[in-house]
From TrEMBL:
SMART domains: Alpha_L_fucos. Its EC number is 3.2.1.51. Residues 325-413 form the Alpha-L-fucosidase C-terminal domain. It comes from the Eukaryota. This is Alpha-L-fucosidase.
């Protein structure tokens, strides 16, 4: 099960309760270690990937608890993975007979449950991830064999599912993925999107990403994803998203993952600051368990991010990129702007031992510019460095007195 949370100007969460990279190699029956060895050791002979269906139980899945965790994370919208590349749908799709969460395993409509809890308990926008292709669907493989000159799979499976989830759940985000090396004409992406934006029940509220066929990524769409873990480090002319994982190596849940494989909250704050400064959103993926739990390490990261945003949220929510994205003098300093408030936000990731922070980009005005540390009441003293740059005296605080522990925000008013 994958859950993703998107932070920045807007925030997002997604969940796929079933598949990981393992499913591709096991279902494909390729001789890949350590998968073959693991299966031989732990499962009976002849055990197929389809046999995992009944083992996906989600008995501990509590949509209200999930919604509360998501709200506490500081997220602004959530995207549940309704179907990943193995084709198992988390709702009772009539186009995925006996390979969905209502017919097999949980015997529950997990999409409906989370949608209801998110809408009833939070102010998050609700969205759905949907994979266009399926690794081993015979109709898709037949179409691929014909170089996609036939269109049996999209017309009978993928497109009907998309229309179905829009009609049933009215998501505000459609996060498409998995083109299967097929062009957008094979998927009839323009036809679906024309309906979505002109005639669907969500036509006035929906947004979409850029994964609608080969050649569309980073070229078309309401926002760009470009590739997984995309973080260009510079400003882009179009809204974009950095989709990445808290587990450094997996989009799913790994029972054997050591603690060192999980990004620390310091790493995540750094990723968020870099991404938002360059005009992007951060999609922070977590992998819940087969029985429906958000593992404690993931919950901790989400709540830590929410605690950080409680103090520093003004540097994230509703902001725009500034004329400089990062500082030219001090590393680990990233800028955003709040035009309505007339502020420049300075997110610095390392508290200097000297207590003095030097910035090379702001052009301060003597007698006008004010400097405030988010979460601290008093104004800070500063000195201009010629026409450009300034030195700021940070308050002398013990670690317990700091407004937060993993990165801090200065708010500058009246700077050029």
């Amino acid at each position: 099960m994958m859950v993703s949370i998107l932070f920045s100007l807007s925030e997002n969460i997604s969940a796929d309760m079933f598949c990981s990279v393992f499913c591709r190699w096991y279902w494909q029956k390729e001789k890949r270690e350590p998968y073959v060895k693991f299966m031989d050791t732990n499962y009976p002979p002849g055990f197929s990937y389809e046999d995992f269906g009944p083992l996906f139980t989600a008995e501990f899945f509590d949509a209200n608890q999930w919604a509360d965790i998501l709200k506490a994370s500081g997220a602004r919208y959530v995207v549940l993975t309704s179907k990943h590349h193995e084709g198992f749908t988390l709702w009772g799709s009539k186009y995925s007979w006996n390979w969905n969460a209502v017919d097999v395993g949980p015997k529950r409509d997990l999409v409906a449950e989370l949608a209801a809890s998110v809408r009833n308990r939070t102010d998050l926008h609700f969205g759905l991830y949907h994979s266009l292709f399926e690794w081993f669907n015979p109709l898709f493989r037949e179409d691929a064999t014909s170089a996609f000159k036939t269109r049996k799979f999209p017309t009978s499976k993928s497109l009907p599912e998309l229309y179905e989830i829009v009609a049933k759940y009215q998501p505000e985000i459609i996060w498409s993925d998995g083109d299967g090396d097929a062009p957008d004409t094979y998927w009839n992406s323009t036809g679906f999107l024309a309906w979505l934006y002109n005639d669907s029940p969500v036509r006035d509220t929906v947004v979409t990403n850029d994964r609608w066929g080969t050649g569309t990524m980073c070229t078309h769409g309401g926002f760009y994803t470009c590739r997984d873990r995309y973080n260009p480090g510079h400003l882009l002319p179009r809204k974009w998203e950095n989709c990445m994982t808290i587990d450094r190596h997996s989009w799913g849940y790994r029972r054997d993952a050591p603690l060192r494989d999980y990004l620390a909250i310091e790493d995540l704050v750094k990723e968020l600051a870099e991404t938002v400064s360059c005009g992007g959103n951060l999609l922070m993926n977590i992998g819940p368990t087969h029985d429906g739990r958000i593992a404690v390490v993931f919950e901790e990261r989400l709540r830590q991010m929410g605690a950080w945003l409680e103090v520093n949220g003004e540097a994230i929510y509703g902001t725009k990129p500034w004329r400089a994205q990062n500082d030219t003098v001090t590393p680990g300093v990233w800028y955003t702007s709040s035009p309505k408030e007339g502020k420049v936000n300075v997110i610095f990731l390392n508290w200097p031992v000297s207590g003095i922070l030097e910035l090379g980009e702001p052009q301060a005005k003597i007698g006008e510019t004010q400097v405030k540390l988010a979460g601290y009441k008093d104004l800070l003293k500063w000195v201009a460095l010629g026409e450009k740059g300034m030195v700021i005296a940070l308050p002398q605080l013990t670690p317990q007195q700091l407004p937060c522990q993993w990165g801090w925000t200065l708010q500058l008013t009246d700077v050029n």
